[in-house]
Write a structure and sequence with these properties.
Layout lengths: L1 H7 L3 E8 L6 H11 L5 H13 L15 H6 L6 E6 L3 E7 L7 H8 L4 E7 L4 H4 L6 H11 L4 E7 L12
Parallel strand pairs: 1-3, 1-4, 4-5
Antiparallel strand pairs: 2-3
Length: about 170
C-alpha cells in the first residue's frame, strides 16, 4: 500500500547502483549516507559500531548497514547486491550496493542491470586508485560494464581523500 502511495505522489523512481574496485569504500560511504539521511537510527548505528569493534573491524561499522551476512562481515567485503530505498523531496531512490571483488562480478552485473544511474567510487589513496585501473582492476571494468548495460549517467565519488591530506591535485 505504501509503495502505491509513493508512486501516486508523483515522485520519480530511480535505481542507483554503487560500483567500484574492491575496498574503495562503497558500502561504508553508502551506509554513512543512509545514516545521515536518517534511514539508520542512532541505536542501530551504536549496535553496528559495537559489533564491528568486537570483530576487530571498527572501520566497517557503516558498511554493516548494508553488508548484513556473517560472511560479508567477517571477510570485510560485499559479496551480493544489497538493496534499500530512500527518498529525496523529488525522488524515490532504490540503492543497489554492488560488490567490488572480481569473484563477484556476476552479482555486480545483476545489480547494474537494474540501474538507471550509477556512482563509481574510487579510492584516492596512492596505489589504490591506480590498481583499480590496472589489469584486473575493477574500477575500469565496472564503468565499462554499467555503460554496456545501458546506464548513461555515471557520477564519480572520490573517497578516502583524508589518506592523501585532501590534496587538490589528487582529486
Amino acid at each position: 500500500m505504501r509503495e502505491l502511495e509513493k508512486r501516486k505522489s508523483g515522485k520519480e523512481t530511480i535505481n542507483l547502483v554503487v560500483i567500484g574496485h574492491v575496498d574503495a569504500g562503497k558500502s561504508t560511504l553508502m551506509g554513512h549516507v543512509l545514516y545521515l539521511l536518517g534511514h539508520v537510527n542512532q541505536r542501530a548505528m551504536h549496535k553496528y559500531e559495537n559489533e564491528s569493534r568486537k570483530a576487530g573491524k571498527s572501520s566497517f561499522a557503516y558498511a554493516w548497514v548494508l553488508d548484513e551476512t556473517g560472511e560479508e562481515r567477517s571477510r570485510g567485503i560485499t559479496m551480493d547486491v544489497a538493496m534499500t530505498k530512500f527518498e529525496t523531496p523529488t525522488k524515490v531512490v532504490t540503492l543497489l550496493d554492488a560488490p567490488g571483488h572480481r569473484d563477484f562480478i556476476p552479482h555486480m552485473i545483476t545489480g547494474a542491470a537494474q540501474a538507471d544511474v550509477a556512482v563509481l567510487v574510487v579510492d584516492a589513496a596512492r596505489g589504490e586508485f591506480e590498481s583499480g585501473f590496472e589489469a584486473g582492476g575493477q574500477t575500469r571494468e565496472h564503468a565499462m560494464l554499467v555503460r554496456s548495460l545501458g546506464v548513461k549517467q555515471l557520477g564519480v565519488a572520490v573517497n578516502k581523500m583524508d589518506t592523501v591530506d585532501w590534496e587538490k591535485d589528487r582529486f
